[in-house]
Design goal:
single chain, 193 residues, Alpha-Beta Plaits, 14% strand, alpha+beta, five-stranded mixed β-sheet, 2 domains
């Protein structure tokens, strides 16, 4: 009977360990340890609901590495991975304690900034952009730069979290089109009538 109980305990512990590992994979990016896109999307929806209740602004910032493909092409994927890890460290070090950071694609990151107006979010993004430009290089010594799009919740329930994320994405592409290595605040939507 003792052997049976020990085997049962061992199996339960193994299952719990496996569940913890699966949970880690589902909620954290394997390379950077940051949250995943799925976690970010859920957090934005929750923040939208909370902000709608409390009337506080929130912002979403999209961050994309400029010319990332060239890093992988010239120096290989290990160099690209190392750069992404260093960028994740800069994001962690320069975001506020209550901001949520996620890796949402190859070289794309999203910051959710609760209770934050657009000017403050843009200043945080600019601080991160400057830090990346001054501290991050690729193996050939070239500086790494990022482009950022920042959007603020418009203060109305109809302005969904998904819409805020989409405006941040549009602003990110405007930063890319207008020369890269910059922060572009999104244009606020017109108030509902």
């Amino acid at each position: 009977m003792l052997q049976y109980k020990l085997a049962l305990i061992r199996d339960v512990l193994a299952i719990n360990l496996m569940n913890a590992k699966l949970s880690r994979v589902a909620y954290h990016d394997a390379l950077t340890g940051l949250r995943t896109r799925r976690v970010m999307e859920e957090a934005i929806a929750e923040e939208h609901a909370r902000s709608t209740r409390n009337g506080h602004p929130f912002c979403v910032t999209m961050v994309d590495v400029d010319n990332f493909k060239s890093v992988n092409d010239r120096h290989g994927h290990p160099a690209g991975d190392k750069m992404l890890l260093e960028l994740a460290g800069i994001l962690r070090a320069n975001a506020r304690a209550y901001d949520l950071i996620a890796r949402c694609g190859g070289d794309e990151f999203v910051l959710l900034m609760p209770e934050t107006p657009l000017d403050v979010a843009a200043a945080v993004a600019e601080r991160i952009r400057h830090r990346v430009e001054s501290d991050l290089t690729v193996p050939d010594g070239r500086q790494v730069t990022i482009s950022c799009g920042v959007a603020e919740w418009a203060g109305e329930a109809e302005d969904t979290g998904t819409a805020v994320l989409r405006r941040a994405d549009v602003a990110l592409y405007e930063a890319k089109r207008s020369g890269r290595n910059r922060v572009v605040p999104a244009v606020a939507p017109a108030p509902a009538k």
